[in-house]
Specification:
mainly alpha
C-alpha cells in the first residue's frame, strides 16, 4: 500500500502523509463498519434506544471519510 502512495518531503504530491492516510483508510474500511455492526448487535440484544440512528451516523461518518480519502488518492495519482 505504501509503495504506491510514498510521500516524502521531496515529493509533496499527497495531501496526507502516508502513515496518516493508511491509518484513516484502515479506520474507514475496518473500524467504522465494525463499530456500526457492534452498535446494531448490542442495540437489538439490550434494547438500547436510538441504536439504529447511532449506527447509521457512524456508517455515514465512515462513508464520508472513505469519500474524502478517495478524493485524496485521486488527487495524488493525477499529479
Amino acid at each position: 500500500m505504501t509503495d504506491e502512495t510514498t510521500n516524502t518531503a521531496d515529493d509533496p504530491r499527497g495531501i496526507l502523509p502516508d502513515r496518516v492516510y493508511d491509518v484513516l483508510k484502515w479506520v474507514a474500511i475496518i473500524v467504522m463498519p465494525a463499530i456500526s455492526t457492534f452498535i446494531v448487535g448490542l442495540g437489538g440484544i439490550w434494547s438500547i434506544p436510538y441504536a439504529g440512528q447511532l449506527a447509521a451516523t457512524v456508517t455515514a461518518i465512515g462513508v464520508l471519510l472513505g469519500a474524502l480519502l478517495g478524493l485524496s488518492s485521486a488527487k495524488y495519482h493525477s499529479q
